[in-house]
Amino acid sequence: MSTSVVVALDVGGTGMKCALVRPDGTVHHEERHPTLAGRGPEAVTENIVEVAAGLAGKARADGLDPVAVGVCVPGVVDEENGVAVWSSNVGFRNVPLRRRIEERLGLPAMLGHDVRAGGIAEARLGAGRGERHVLFAAIGTGIAAALVVDGAGYAGAHGAAGELGHIVVRPGGTPCPCGAAGCLEAMASARAIGQRYADLSGLRDATAFDVVNRLSSDKNARLVWHEAIQALADGMITAQALFDVGTLVLGGGLAEAGDALILPLKAEMEKRLTFHRLPAIVRAALGDTAGCKGAALLALDHLERTR
Ligand SMILES: [Zn+2]
């Protein structure tokens, strides 16, 4: 009997990370493809289905047995019904992605949310390994989070749990694309930090990376970073009040700052604590493969449940 594998895809705004993963979580094969988001949601859907079919074919060519598909996408996701409900960067509007994949491949498929899938992978295979209550926060262009308890992601009643980036931390602050003002994402995402520094320094196209690199030499960089850390601490302490996790895993581009982020954030969160407890704050371990590994776990969990 041939060895089984699952087909895993992490669909992002620009690219897709794909893999064939064995039941023990080890990776047999990896590949990357452009998402083709500019061509519209139907073309993206067709692209996802074709790439998944190609991976299943590759598995068979290698003498393996593809048994299920796990796909994660950004935006609002109805995991129960396998529907990509809404996404700003890919353009999904109620796309029945699970059904489209199952029809084309003849395999059971699971659909998940990208950050939630990444959080599940970090909690089970990465920086949260061995911890029961994990909050994974991805801080990049935007800010989103995933609560993972005993290895399972919490999706919420409408598939929209974990939108930490839209907690208002500065009422009347910077307008956010969501329509509110002063959202955590508008004050402290990597994009917001770069923008604020560009405004202060006059350096067009400045990034959060520039800010971190100039902390020792530029007082504007220190000011921007300090304000961002304050906003992040306000957001994270709110999350901790709600979830009381044991471990906070920081991922996304901003986590590349390492201790320059973690140490001051921890100190600022400590200042804000009253009766709650501070979680351990650690940097994500799986990098940009977390979503794809999480998609594989969704498929493997599904097999486990239906066996
Ligand atoms: Zn917002």
Note down, in words, how this protein is organized:
Helices cover 39% and strands 23% of the residues. It is an alpha/beta fold. The strands form three sheets. It has a five-stranded mixed beta sheet with strand order 3-2-1-4-8, sandwiched between helices. It has nine helices and 13 strands. The chain has helices at residues 41-61, 97-105, 114-125, 184-188, 190-201, 208-213, 219-243, 259-272, 290-306, and strands at residues 4-11, 15-21, 27-34, 65-73, 76-78, 83-86, 93-95, 109-113, 133-139, 143-149, 152-153, 247-251, 280-283. Helix 3 packs across helix 9 (290-306) and helix 5 (190-201) packs antiparallel against helix 7. A hairpin with a 4-residue loop joins strand 5 and strand 6 (83-86). Residues 166, 176, 178, 180, 183, 185 line the site of zinc ion.
